[in-house]
Write a structure and sequence with these properties.
Order of helices and strands: EHHEEEHEHEEHHEEEHEHE
Radius of gyration: 21 Å
Number of helices: 8
Number of strands: 12
Length: 307
């Protein structure tokens, strides 16, 4: 069993792309980040180059067992786009612990936390703490939802939906910054975030009398999957149903375009949004953790690392 780590996105896609696409809902964040990097380049999320990796099993050589085991297909994957923490696919306990050892041993990357399904995140964090002496804390507790039967708001608020254009860019940058402040999300460059979404028609506005009052974004479609994100209403306009209407509109458009897996994440600390999305027809899939690491005052010696 082994991790292969690379800075080469094409190499990562060739090795792990099939694994990720086979279960698009469980790998939604990895898939959508990769699609954005392909479209916008390696600087999409920050100035430091992204790093990628995949976990392979071992298979007996079908020709000559004397040659020993050879690498099999990918069984796990991660990527890290600094300053964001690594994103991990669901991993076995062995794979999560070995990834922690790999990243801690090389000390080439500043690992500030981890973002993954709950079990994988906790296993990685426990191994990271043992290896480095760092402590971990929960930054956000997310729940992944999948759209079942869409149930639009009834009655719908006044207004209509439309796709955002570059004419809306300045407003959307302001809203993106507001979204980051309200949610505590690490958004990086808001302008890059907005430009990436606009490049594929990925933001729907709800407008009233020609004035935008809310928005809902969606990722590029990958493996018949897309994820709703960046749902935002300015504070002075909240409580009127605009965000729900925008979310329903972008969800309906995705379904009409043939997307079979329409997903979204919610922060479990926000009961309002969780209730809203369930009313629209979204159903829970699994829980995810975003953990942050606080370095130890004195690093654990290398010889203290488990083999």
């Amino acid at each position: 069993m082994a991790w292969t780590v690379t800075y080469d996105l094409d190499e990562f896609r060739a090795a792990a792309g099939g694994f990720l696409r086979a279960r698009p809902a469980r790998h939604t964040t990895l898939l959508t980040v990769v699609s954005s990097l392909v479209a916008a380049g390696s600087g999409r999320y920050g100035d430091q180059p992204p790093v990628y990796g995949w976990w392979t099993g071992e298979e007996a050589d079908p020709v000559s067992a004397v040659q020993g085991p050879v690498h099999g297909p990918a069984q796990g994957a991660f990527l890290c786009t600094p300053p964001y923490p690594p994103l991990l696919s669901p991993l076995s306990g062995e794979a999560a612990q070995e990834l922690a050892r790999t990243l801690a041993r090389d000390r080439e990357w500043q690992i500030t936390g981890v973002n993954a399904g709950r079990e994988t995140a906790e296993t990685f964090a426990t191994a990271w703490q043992r290896l480095t002496g760092a402590s971990s804390s929960v930054e956000q507790f997310h729940r992944l939802y999948r759209l079942g039967d869409l149930t639009p708001p009834d009655p719908a608020p006044p207004g209509r939906a439309r796709t955002a254009t570059t004419a809306d860019r300045d407003l959307l940058i302001t809203w993106c910054e507001g979204f980051a402040r309200d949610t505590g999300a690490l958004m990086g460059d808001a302008a890059k975030q907005v430009d990436d979404k606009l490049s594929h028609g990925g933001i729907t506005l709800w407008e009233l009398d020609g004035r935008p009052v809310a928005c809902a974004g969606i990722s590029r479609t990958v493996a018949d999957m897309a994820r709703v994100a960046l749902v935002y209403t300015p504070p002075e306009l909240r409580g009127r149903g605009y965000a729900g209407a925008a979310t329903a509109a972008v969800s309906r458009a995705a379904r009409a375009a043939g997307v079979t897996e329409v997903l979204l994440f919610t922060d479990l600390a926000n009961p309002t949004s969780n209730a809203l999305y369930q009313r629209l027809g979204y159903r829970p899939v699994e829980d995810h953790l975003l953990l942050s690491f606080t370095p130890a005052d004195h690093p654990v010696p290398e010889q203290g690392h488990p083999s």
